[in-house]
Design goal:
Length: 376
């Protein structure tokens, strides 16, 4: 059996005529169409119902098994209206007394009503969709609905309207730049902002940036020391970069010939390693502090600052050796000391964790592992 399903998503039929929906059957549907046309001759849903009746009559004349029904939603929004239509479709299907498989032909008056098609398809197979458009207003409702959807969708709005807004600002900003005698700076800044925005959207960096800002905000309100540690570490990292570049320039000035790539890398590392080590220790201590406050600190987490110091000692000795600042003996001693520092810290905290962990800690570890397995 083919079910001709006329959809009135915003329930113009019920609100304007008082008809109880769903309307099932040819006579009832015709009465509903006449009542709606009488109440509001300009309503496009009148054409939907009459189109459904036309399809019904055409198929019935061919002796095909067919039924017509009118289902409506409400004017409370797309989600609520879609649910209402789904419930009425269930009522229509339950009222059909047939042993045949039922398929549907959906009749609508535009793109907005067609948003309910997935709801209908989840209940009954759909053979086709017939859109009824008044000849004097072809594509008008579809254009309106498309523009409305673009303006309501945050992602589409950000993708389309923000670049368009920046482009429209170029001319007034150019006038301001001319008045300030800096047209090149203003146009360059505007172009750079537009380019950075398009690149971030193209690479999908917008969501990652939003997540990072949200995490930073939560860390700030939660009083987490990690945020402060990251800020200090970033400052130390910049200072390390400046110090490394200064050391490289000093090495180049002190060398008469060309400076090789290994020596250049060694100079940058030698000048910046102490700052980078301080940044690494700062971030690890901040993380350890937050883990301790949260009650999730484990002994092996304390290895982090010692590992940073071990790596810093090794890199400092290697870079100093390439710059002829130290001899082979100092290099060997530094490599040994760095390795021993990492090994000793690992063994120390491993032994401390095994000796000092109580039954409660074991139970907490078991519960933590259970929660992780449940998430997987």
């Amino acid at each position: 059996m083919l079910l001709v399903l006329c959809v009135d998503l915003d329930d113009d039929l019920g609100r304007k005529t008082g008809f109880s929906t769903p309307v099932i059957g040819r006579e009832s549907a015709e009465a509903a169409a006449v009542a709606l046309a009488t109440a509001d001759p300009e309503d496009s849903d009148v054409n939907v119902i009459f189109q459904g009746l036309h399809i019904y009559d055409d198929l019935d004349a061919r002796d095909e098994s067919v039924e017509v029904a009118v289902v409506t939603g409400n004017d409370e929004g797309d989600v609520s209206a879609n649910r209402e239509v789904g419930d009425e479709v269930d009522t229509v299907l339950a009222s059909l007394s047939t042993a045949e498989d039922v398929t549907a032909l959906v009749v609508t008056d535009g793109a907005q009503d067609e948003s309910v098609i997935p709801i209908i398809r989840s209940r009954v197979p759909i053979d086709g969709v017939r859109r009824v458009v008044v000849r004097q207003a072809q594509n008008l409702e579809s254009m309106y609905y498309t523009i409305k959807q673009v303006l309501n969708d945050p992602e589409t709005r950000g993708t389309v309207l923000i670049p368009l807004g920046i482009l429209l600002l170029i001319y007034p900003l150019a006038l301001i730049g001319t008045v300030l005698e800096m047209p090149g700076f203003v146009l360059g800044t505007t172009s750079a902002l537009l380019g950075l925005y398009l690149i971030s959207r193209g690479l999908g960096l917008g969501e990652q940036l939003d997540d990072a800002v949200e995490r930073a905000r939560r860390s700030l309100y939660a009083g987490r020391t990690t945020l402060l540690a990251y800020v200090v570490a970033a400052t130390l990292f910049v200072l390390g970069g400046v110090s490394g570049i200064n050391t490289l320039e000093a090495e180049q000035n002190a060398t008469t010939g060309d400076v090789g790539v290994p020596v250049m890398l060694a100079a940058v590392v030698y000048g910046s390693i102490q700052w980078l080590a301080a940044a690494g220790v700062t971030t690890s201590l901040g993380q350890i502090t937050d883990e301790y406050i949260a009650g999730t600190l484990e002994w092996r987490y304390l290895n982090a600052p010692f590992y940073v110091l071990s790596i810093a000692v090794v890199l400092h000795a290697v870079s100093a050796f390439f710059l002829d600042e130290v001899g082979i003996s100092y290099l060997a001693a530094a490599l040994t000391a760095g390795t021993l520092l990492g090994i000793v810290s690992t063994l120390t905290f491993a032994v401390a964790e095994s000796r000092l962990s109580g039954p409660d800690d074991d139970e907490q570890d078991t519960e933590s592992e259970t929660r992780q397995l449940g998430r997987v």
